[in-house]
């Protein structure tokens, strides 16, 4: 136990654990959104013989439980409780680019002809297909960046493990305050770089 490094290690590991939970949650949510938006668009395309409200209600009934089904249910329920169609759609259908595009379409759909709405829906379906293709291509180009992220994580974990379990390393870094500071700065920089590059990869994916 060290009066400086022990609290630091606890603080660093807690911060990384909190970040990783939120990061993994965002990744999981993003991976679920695209298939559900695509499914919703396909169902709307099938049900557009009804009014846009009826089509959206029927489509929601066919969706699997998830964030998109919840958003659509909330929007239609708000409309049935008295909110205007545009207000209900804008309030509940937002969050990312795909959902925002769908929200903008649905908000103006009551003023459009049925054929125009179907054409717009089909255009969004094609857009998602293109986006999926671009993401697959980008995955190969991001390999080097992902390798950098994994290398930083492994190097940081290896260094911390060595300090914790190798007496020579532990004695070296705990021998003076300056060496403790060096270890803190090094572990902080490596952890910050890992977080930064991980978030950059997500930003690149979101931008596609």
Task: Outline the structure in words.
The chain is mainly alpha-helical. 86% of the residues lie in helices and 0% in strands. It is built from 9 helices and no strands. 18% of the residues are buried. The model has no long low-confidence stretch (mean pLDDT 82).
Number of strands: 0
* Total count of helical runs of at least 4 residues: 9
Briefly note the structural class of the backbone: mainly alpha
Reading the helices and strands in chain order gives HHHHHHHHH
How many whole angstroms does the radius of gyration measure?
25 Å
Biggest sheet overview: none
Our measurement of the CA-to-CA distance between the termini, rounded to an integer number of angstroms, reads: 47 Å
Mean pLDDT comes to: 82
Q: What share of the residues lie within helices?
A: over 70%
Per DSSP, what share of the residues sits in E-state strands of 2 or more residues?
under 5%
Contiguous low-pLDDT stretches (5 residues minimum) are none
- What general form does the structure show? elongated
Properties at a glance:
86% helix, 208 residues, mainly alpha, single chain, elongated
Write the layout of secondary structure elements.
Blueprint: H1 5-47, H2 52-62, H3 67-80, H4 85-92, H5 97-108, H6 114-141, H7 143-165, H8 167-174, H9 177-207
Give a quick rundown of the structure.
Helices cover 86% and strands 0% of the residues. It has 208 residues and is mostly helical.
């Amino acid at each position: 136990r060290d009066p400086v490094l022990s609290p630091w290690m606890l603080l660093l590991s807690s911060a990384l654990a909190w970040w990783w939970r939120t990061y993994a949650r965002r990744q999981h949510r993003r991976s679920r959104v695209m298939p559900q938006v695509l499914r919703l668009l396909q169902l709307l395309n099938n049900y557009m013989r009804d009014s846009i409200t009826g089509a959206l209600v029927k489509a929601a009934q066919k969706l699997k439980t998830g964030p998109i089904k919840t958003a659509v249910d909330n929007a239609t329920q708000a409309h049935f409780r008295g909110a205007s169609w545009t207000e209900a759609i804008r309030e509940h259908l937002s969050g990312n680019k795909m959902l925002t595009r769908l929200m903008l379409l649905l908000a103006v759909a009551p003023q459009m002809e049925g054929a125009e709405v179907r054409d717009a829906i089909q255009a969004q379906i094609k857009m998602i297909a293109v986006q999926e293709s671009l993401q697959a291509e980008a995955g190969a180009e991001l390999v080097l960046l992902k390798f950098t992220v994994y290398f930083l994580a492994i190097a940081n974990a290896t260094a911390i493990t060595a300090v914790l379990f190798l007496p020579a390393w532990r004695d070296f870094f705990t021998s003076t305050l300056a060496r403790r500071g060096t270890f803190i700065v090094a572990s902080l920089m490596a952890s910050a770089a890992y977080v930064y590059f991980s978030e950059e990869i997500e930003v690149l994916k979101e931008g596609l």
